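Example (one chain per record):
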Amino acid sequence: MLINTLKKQTSSEIGRTAESLAAKYLTDQGLQIIEQNYSAKTGEIDIIALDNQVLVFIEVKFRKTARYGQPYETVTHNKQQKIIRTAQSYLLKHKKYTNYACRFDIISILNNEITWLSHAFE
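Predicted structure:
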C-alpha cells in the first residue's frame, strides 16, 4: 500500500515518489518519458512525454485521502496557465518538438488509485 511507504517521507520525497509512480504508469500505457521535473523561470512541469507524435506535459498530484477533494482539483486555472507558459518555454528551448501537437494531462493519485486525465486543459 502506497500510503504506508509515505508515512516517513517529507513532502518533497512524497512528490518524487508520486512522480515516479506516475512515470511508471505512463510508460506501462505506452508513453515515452522524455524528461521529469523540467524547470524554467516560469515554473516546473512534472513529466514530459511522447504519446506517439503528441508531446504531453503532465502535472502529477497526490493526496492520501479525499477529505479535501480529489488531487486533480488542486490544478487551478492559475496553475494551468503557469504550466502552459512553462511548456512554451520548453518548446522554445527544444526546437525539435516545435511542430508536434501538444497536450496537457494530469495524473491524479489518491492513495493507491491512479486517475489519468488526458486533455485535462488547453
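Caption: The chain has one domain: 2-121.
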